[in-house]
Design brief:
The protein has 20 helices and 16 strands. It is an alpha/beta fold.
Length: 522
Amino acid sequence: MTTAPPDAAAAGAPGAAAVPGGAGAVRAALEAAARGLDTSRWPTKLPVADRLAVLLDPGSWVEDGLLANAEAGDLPADGVRTGTGRIEGRPVAVIAHDFAVKAGSWGRLTCEKQIRILERADRDLLPVIYLVDSAGGRLTDQLGFFSDRRGASRIFQLQVALSGRVPQLCCLLGPSAAGGAYMPAFTDWVGMVEGNASMYLAAPRVAEKVTGERTTLEEMGGAMMHATVSGCGDEVFGADWEAIAAARLLLSYLPGHWRQRPPSAPSAAPERSGWDGVIPDSESAGYDIHAVIDRLVDAGSFFEIKARWAAELVVGLGRLGGQVVGIVANQPQVRSGAIFVDSADKAARFITMCDAFNIPLVFLHDVPGFMVGVAVERQGIIRHGAKMITAMASAEVPKFSVILRKSYAAGYYAMCAPGFEPRASIALPGATIGPMAAEASVNAMYAKKIEAIGDPAARAAFVDERLAEQNADLTLLRVAADLVVDTVVEPERLRDELIARLADAAGWERGPQRRHHHSSPV
């Protein structure tokens, strides 16, 4: 009995493996590309195949371009896996860099693979999940990735074209360097793994050469820095699988594309009940706005976004009676809940995302206004505030405004005042609305007169009289009588009120297009 050579047997025909590029060689190349290179040098990272397994429903991965650069033995799949799969049964497109292949760097074919899957996502309206772990452009192939019509610039063009059409979620699991750092920046959400993930336009050694600064990678572009200082990262995770699981969860709040409404879920009771002591009577007393959110949304449904950045404002997605809503809430326990430059930007980005994907918005007011002072004026608080107001005013999704305790000055406007056409302006019984707090108003109007009263008792009596006058002008009964608010509800009824009004607005539609787009006050 004769035995066929091992390669020929694998090929299914005698002698097939001897043919260069024959079936045996193809099968071997496919197996090598799917297996990938040795990842033991990076024990804290999941191999790219394992990342895909965590992300996608079992058996749903359909890959394109696995044999890219197969004739170069050290470039399996050319450093990026691209294809489609399903998450909870819903189709998605995936770009997954392979850190074991030349550090996930981009060459000509790496770019071409990413361009092709993005073009498919644009054509078929597929959400895109990015598993980013790339050292940036491959300098040995710089003409292929940098200046070509099918190079990195085309990737960014497609990401911008997809923005607002389909969700784009990024799990940043390693570096995203140089020009490639813009790939996460064009997405709707960026989850970063602490210790591994980084974003930077130039490495520390390059920065030192150019600017003389001496720094570390973590200080300049690490996960915690971006999540707390720059705002480029949305959340920090301890491991690859945690970031990927969060992306899967976030997708469950978003429609597949801009023409769809968000998926609903079974209604659930809120996580917490009972309102006694939740909102202090004193306007100057801080409290955690999460205590309010937990009493409104379905239990366990609040997905906070950018929780570590600009914490004086809380934004995130939740469910009311099973329906997805976006929540924009002032945080009184952080900087009194005043709106700063970063929190204005945070709100503008979140509101824009919600409007793009047909997610109704609930604004929870407890705001003294925008921050004032020399520092914020020099930072452009007016320009950034205009950005937030523009995003809110432009949003066509149903908007609901809730005044929890106080809403003053331009902060009242930015949090969707009645002039911005919320479907309802709702107040709790102790709420106050006005151009500024009574004490600030009295001091502004009567500063010189107060200073001129020499007797302390007479001065205090004068101030008390003026405060009483101002407070009388700001009573909730007066503003409700003038139809400034649509209804006043007890805290215990607020959740049911919002659910009912959300159901009433379920048939909303967008108005006819009136222009190309607004001129953004960036």
